[in-house]
Amino acid sequence: MVKTEHPTAERGHARANREAPQPGTSLPPIQPVLRSLNPDIAPGRNGQNPVHLPTTTPTEQSPQGPAIHAELAAEQHVLSTEDFKLHYGKHRALHGITMQIPAGKVTALIGPSGCGKSTLLRSFNRLNDLIENVRVEGRIRFQGQDIHDRKVDVIRLRKKMGMVFQKSNPFPMSILENVVYALRIGGERRRRVLDEVCEKSLRSAALWDEVKDRLHTSALGMSGGQQQRLCIARAIAAEPEVLLMDEPCSALDPIATGKVEELIYALRGKYTVVIVTHNMQQAARVSDYTAFMYMGRLVEYGPTNSIFVNPHLKETESYVTGRFG
Amino acid sequence: MQIASVYIRGKSHLMFGLCILFTAVILGLLGMVSGYLISLGYKSVDLALFTQLPVPAGAAGFPGGLQNGIVGSIIMIAMASLIGIPIGMLAGIYLAEYSSRSWLAGPVRFIADVQTGVPSIVVGILGYELLVVPLGSYNGWAGAAALAFIMIPLVARTTEEMLLLVPRGYREASVALGATKARTILRVVVPAAFGSVITGIMLAIARVAGETAPLLFTALGSRFLESNPSRPFPSLTVQIYHAAMEPYKEESRKAWAGILVLLALIFVLNVTVRLTMRASGYGARAAR
Ligand SMILES: Nc1ncnc2c1ncn2[C@@H]1O[C@H](COP(=O)(O)OP(=O)(O)O)[C@@H](O)[C@H]1O
Ligand SMILES: [Mg+2]
Q1: Quick check: CB of A116 below 6 Å from ligand 1?
Q2: Is residue A227's pLDDT more than 90?
Q3: Residue B177: which of A172, A173, A238 has the nearest Cβ?
Q4: Do A31 and A151 sit in the same domain of this protein?
Q5: Mean pLDDT of A250-272
Q6: For atom 11 of ligand 1, which residue has the closest CA?
Q7: Ligand 1 atom closest to residue A128's alpha carbon, by position in its atom list
């Protein structure tokens, strides 16, 4: 089943080989294999975030638990999950995910549909709170703070995390009002500030030149690719620290996809980006790190280059080369 | 293969033909009704209808006009809308957005449905018991309240349905940007559904504009131009009803003219609201 979903995966692997060393970034060299057999191998930079918790349920696919590459230990982490489980009613969608998201980097979540990528992403800004009968266990920390803690103001948490959805969803308002929506929420009314932020965000989203003459017309009149870039502009107008993107290009044509990918690539450093994609060329092109998930579990997580060129686990290799199972 | 495809194509043509046929039947009926109304009423629609009060048989100027009824209906429908639309919309918003975790939702929805089905004469009797008897006289407030009572469930259920049609993505995007639920509803969800909610409200207004029975027991009617809702209040429909009961030809012609005026008022209201919405940019949004 998975095989048919990724007919281009073989080519993706080839491209990954060619393209993975991105210009300007020196991806870390492939490090010796670190299977997370030993929980003590890779403590986080601050020494208190073990990369692998021994409590993680072993998976069928990788009886040893997830393979976490050593490079991650050298990163500064902004988000981390600790044995995070999530249930939709009786159905458990995440089976104890333990991973850390490095700050200022682009992290891709890949895996077959239904493996829990969106669920995990939506857990970071607690968007799953909107869904009934969702129950969580374990922890998610954002800048060290447990986001499920009673003291945490979920509104403020969400303001620090921009989100871009699979289906572009501009509001039925003008382009300008869409972009400054977050500022309006914050009570900003000064025309000058709103205009400035609007221009800056649209420029960052590479959309300014296309729409600067029709900022006051309805956003619903834009093309699909423009709408998605508007949604990105809207998310970054709020100056978040983390950008969560759930298959942002899956409804776009190749040209629009290219533009959005360039944009994501340009956002690294400024923002921490977590992007869900099941297009593996895309993961290879835009991300620094890649996490491979399968059936609600994290299987392998490491520098994108290693995941695609030299994965530690057979399952990962099968998936990224399109020979699944 | 060939035969099968002809057969399927034949079936599809048949279906298309039936759709056209029934559309024509409906449109034909509608045309007949309005044609009949217009042919009977148009001769009697004159300026006097709008500028004169009714005159009883035998008196000079008989049969007079319907001025008090037209003005009275507009006032009472406006009052009913001021009460009924906000309450109905708030109830609809509650049902669509807040009720999912509440035990109250089922009962509210059930009552709204029952309320929609209550014969309007029962609404009149209810208004009589609650607002006429205690106040000691038939009055315009009771009439407006009875009309509002009919409007509320209609507005509530259409609002609910239209809000539920708003894509979940809008809500998620707004919440993900740090908006509260209330803000999300007011700034994103309701505006997105506004066009269709307005259509529902227009239907509700049209429905109560034609009501007679509840007004007979509450506002009663009046031969004079009335501005004090604490007194018996005139309305177009009650006047049409009385005119139609009279044995005189002049009176029944006035009734036909009154019906035409009622239809025209509803039509004008609809067109005005739609044009205003389009001018303010809601047309484009509603079109999506
Ligand atoms: N709102 C929901 N209610 C119930 N089950 C859900 C819901 N959303 C997702 N799921 C289930 O959770 C699992 C993971 O879904 P998801 O996170 O959307 O996967 P992915 O994004 O990797 O395709 C799937 O089995 C899916 O059926
Ligand atoms: Mg998904």
Answers
A1: yes
A2: yes
A3: A238
A4: no
A5: 88
A6: A93
A7: 1
CATH code, A265? 3.40.50.300
Same-domain status, A83 and A143: yes
Residue A27 sits in the same domain as residue A63? no
Distance CA B145, CA B83 (A): 8
- In-domain check, residue A151: yes
Partner-chain contact B284 A238, CB within 8 Å: no
The count of domains in chain A is 2
For residue B285, pLDDT beyond 50? no
* Shared-domain flag, residues A157 and A218: yes
Residue A23 lies in a domain: yes
| Helix extents (H) in B60-179 | 67-93, 105-117, 120-127, 140-164, 168-176
Band the pLDDT of A255: cuts 50, 70, 90. Answer: confident
- DSSP output for B92-117: HHIIIIIGGG-TTHHHHHHHHHHHHH
DSSP E strand boundaries for chain A: 67-68, 77-88, 91-102, 106-110, 134-142, 145-146, 161-164, 242-246, 272-276, 289-294, 297-303
Contact call for residues B224 and B233 (beta carbons, < 8 A): no
CB A108 within 8 A of CB A120: no
Instruction: Provide the token pair at B9.
Output: 């194509």
Going by C-alpha positions, the residue among A30, A65, A61 that lies closest to residue A50 is: A65
In the sheet with A106-110, reading across from the earlier edge strand, the strands are A67-68, A297-303, A289-294, A106-110, A272-276, A242-246, A161-164
pLDDT digit string (tens) for A54-107? Answer: 333 444 444 567 899 999 999 999 999 999 999 999 999 999 999 999 999 999
| H/E segment holding residue B20 | helix B2-41
Say if A178 falls within a structural domain. yes
B105 touching A, CB under 8 A?
no
- Same domain, residue pair A218 and A312: yes
Looking at every residue in chain A, the average pLDDT score rounds to 82
Same domain, A103 and A168: yes
**How confident is the model at residue B281, as a pLDDT?**
63
Tell whether A133 and A282 lie within a shared domain.
Answer: yes
The pLDDT tens digits for B155-193 are: 999 999 999 999 999 999 999 999 999 999 999 999 999
Does residue A95 lie in a domain region?
yes
Cα distance between residue A154 and residue A294, in whole Å: 29
Domain range enclosing A34: 7-52
Neighbours of B32 (CB within 10 A): 10
**DSSP letter assigned to residue B235:** -
Gap between the Cα atoms of A316 and A308, Å rounded: 8
Above 0.90 for ipTM, yes or no? no
pLDDT digits (tens, 9 = 90+) for A11-52: 434 343 333 334 333 333 333 322 222 333 333 333 333 333
Contact B170 A169 (CB under 8 A): yes
Reported confidence tier of residue A276, pLDDT bands at 50, 70, 90: very high
Q: Are residues A21 and A83 in the same domain?
A: no
Nearest alpha carbon, ligand 1 atom 4: A88
* Alpha carbon of B285: minimum distance to chain A alpha carbons (Å): 6
